[in-house]
Design goal:
Elements (H helix, E strand, L loop, with lengths): L15 H11 L3 E2 L11 H12 L12 H15 L9 E4 L1 H13 L5 E6 L5 H7 L3 E6 L9 H7 L4 E7 L11 H14 L2 E5 L25 E6 H4 L8 E4 L2 H14 L5 H16 L2 H22 L12 E5 L8 H12 L1 E2 L1 E2 L13 E5 L4 H11 L7
Parallel strand pairs: 1-10, 3-4, 3-5, 5-6, 6-7
Antiparallel strand pairs: 2-8, 7-8, 9-12, 11-12
Helix pairs in contact: 2-10, 3-10, 4-5, 4-9, 11-13
This protein binds 4'-deoxy-4'-aminopyridoxal-5'-phosphate and glutamine.
Glutamine binds next to loops.
């Protein structure tokens, strides 16, 4: 190629999830790395998708998403949070949360604007900010409770701050932010007139009675929040890629302006399936069962990791457990996870890749528990081989 690639691509590399999944395949490792369920999706949602295909629902949906899907999403938001949103002007459906995060950042951020992100930071946020010409300002969450330092958070707000990207329940830590923490962040956003892009893709996955609180439901926040969610985790279909954003019309308009030229729309049969799924999930008692089975998987993996000398931190949401790898004597978490994948046969994600400066990261490995009992047990058998280096 004669022309050099655009500089904005230079730091992007290959996503850690792609890298570790490929390594897991090459070494026939049990993959507890990339977050995706390895068990079947509920029958009612698969039937709904198949019906939509049989009925020839093959052509473009409106760019904002199928009207019946937006109505079902508005009804669910009303049911959960007692807040009315207008499906015509306040909901946008797109190709997963990944696209909506990108759309939201492009819709808001001018070159040179600052966007606050919490560290560890989900891998897509900083590239999105860079693609918009913005600057990421990192605020540390500190183990084991993953709290921010209030003074550090306050200092991160400057006259150039345009947005904060929040993620709750949080990947990779499993933290579910408490209402009081969200109040503190909300007060700063109101004071500095900053928008929150709130990534809530694990909204239905909380345990031990912990409540997921969307920051949009706090006083004065609805008008400054884009709440993003996706059917991937809730219905165990990460490959279907239907996500949605709920935001006031003033934020929805620019978001849709970007979305229409990024993908315009996404797959109709899966939008139909989600519309049906949202109606049927309640009648099937689906959400409670989902949480109960995930809580059981979390217990199973916790036991397995403890037996292998990798006591995980507690996690009250999402589907990951973090383990300190220090005692095993590797140079860092990346070396540990490579060894674990290639020599022990269990793949995990090194969390230092979620840090701007990996050298400042605690050496944790992330294990995904969205897995069948057999998968977790197969990992247990292999982990018996795990030994400290010296
Ligand atoms: N945000 C977080 C925190 C995630 O963990 C993921 C994916 N697993 C996404 C966004 C992407 O969601 P989607 O698959 O709907 O694009
Ligand atoms: N969100 C998933 C995870 O954290 C991965 C998604 C992806 O591969 N982009 O494992």
């Amino acid at each position: 190629m004669s022309a050099p690639p655009a500089r904005r691509t230079s730091g992007f590399g290959t996503s850690i999830f792609t890298e570790i999944s490929a390594l897991a395949v090459a070494h026939d490792a049990v993959n507890l790395g990339q977050g995706f369920p390895d068990f079947p999706a509920p029958a009612f949602i698969k039937e709904a998708a198949m019906r939509a295909i049989r009925e020839d629902r093959n052509q473009y949906a409106p760019a904002a998403g199928l009207p019946r899907l937006r109505a079902a999403l508005a009804a669910r938001w009303q049911h959960l949070h007692g807040v009315t949103v207008d499906p015509n002007t306040e909901i946008t459906v797109a190709s997963g949360a990944t696209e909506l995060l990108h759309d939201a950042v492009l819709a808001l951020v001018e070159p040179g604007d600052e966007v606050i992100v919490f560290e560890p930071t989900y891998d897509a946020y900083v590239p999105d900010i860079i693609m918009a010409g913005g600057v990421a300002r990192h605020v540390a969450l500190r183990a084991p409770l993953w709290r921010w330092d209030p003074a550090e958070l306050r200092r991160a707000f400057t006259p150039r701050t345009r947005a904060v990207i929040l993620n709750t329940p949080h990947n990779p830590t499993g933290k579910v932010f408490a209402r009081e923490e969200l109040e503190e962040l909300a007060a700063l956003c109101r004071e500095h007139d900053v928008v929150v892009i709130s990534d809530e893709v694990y909204s239905e996955l909380t345990y031990d009675g912990t409540a997921h609180v969307p920051i949009a439901t706090l006083p004065g926040m609805r008008e400054r929040t884009i709440s993003i969610d996706s059917m991937g985790k809730t219905f165990s279909v990460t490959g279907w890629k239907v996500g949605w954003a709920i935001a006031p019309e003033t934020l929805t308009l620019p978001l849709r302006a970007i979305h229409q030229f990024v993908t315009f729309t996404n797959s109709v049969p899966f939008q139909e399936a989600l519309s049906d799924g949202l109606e049927l999930a309640d009648t099937h008692g689906y959400y409670d069962e989902l949480r109960a089975t995930y809580a059981a998987r979390r217990e199973r993996l916790t036991r397995v990791l403890k037996e292998a000398g990798l006591a995980p931190l507690s996690a009250s949401g999402a589907y990951f457990l973090l383990c300190d790898t220090t005692a095993f004597g590797f140079a860092d978490d990346v070396a540990f996870c490579r060894h674990l994948t290639t020599e022990v046969g269990v793949a995990a994600i090194p969390t230092s890749v979620f840090y701007a400066d990996p050298k400042t990261a605690p050496p944790f490995a992330r294990f995904c528990f969205a897995k069948r009992d057999e998968t977790i047990d197969a990992a247990a058998a292999r982990l018996k081989k795990l030994r400290p280096l010296h």
